[in-house]
Design a protein that fits this description.
The protein contains 8 helices and 8 strands. The protein is α+β, with helices and mostly antiparallel strands. It has a domain of 94 residues. The chain is elongated, with a radius of gyration of 26 Å.
Length: 260
Amino acid sequence: MENYDPSDLVSVCESIVEDGEISGEELYRLAEWLNDHREACLCWPGELLVKPLQEVWADDKVTKTEIRKIGRLLIRIRKDFAKHQVEVAVEQAADYAAEIANSIDLAEPRIPSIPIVFHVKSHTDKSMVYEVDLSGPTCTCPDWRSNRYSLARGHLSRCCKHVFDAYGKVEPEGGWPGWFGAFLDESWAPHPLQEWMVLKLGGRFVLASTAPKAWANAYVEQDGSYDRFGYNLIEDRWAYGMEPPGSDRIRRAIREAAKV
């Protein structure tokens, strides 16, 4: 039964454990549900429940030990189902992301929307988990809620470090294209006041930013791949003395955007 949907049975299991205490009456209701849905007994998670429930009713007596045993099983089923749903969502999002990767307009400095939500752990406090929605993108972390929430949808500076993590979970097999792939690979949250522009140099697109804190960024193709180059607006120099191809034009565009 490859197409069997366990959602109904999982809902029954969740309704039993949701109040924190399981009764013999609830186990009887679960057993009756399985008797009325014989196909569920042959598939996950029903196949895990049949034997333990049979053991409970074998002597017509329900003990606390038996209740706790089945309670732990129901909790495990709930967790495994939630994990499976996430895996399915990731697979679907990855397929969708591959389509998006082929249709990204690299002439526009925008981040694509992917309809999926991830729970991403904090980088500093592993007990803290944030919700990242890649359709915006949005994040529930303090940085995003304080500094990035007002930016337009698709704005590159909406990306906090947790958004970078989430995009990494759905990266297409061939990687993200052009400057967008380099932007994500850096995993470096941009300053929330950075604005972005795309320049076309020699048939290739270059992503460049403004410099709210002296340093601007430029993602430029060099030797077949994109690299990030830093430009200091105040000192009028490229980081480490490394100038990207087309550096003069990129430099002028950055300074013009800053009205220098």
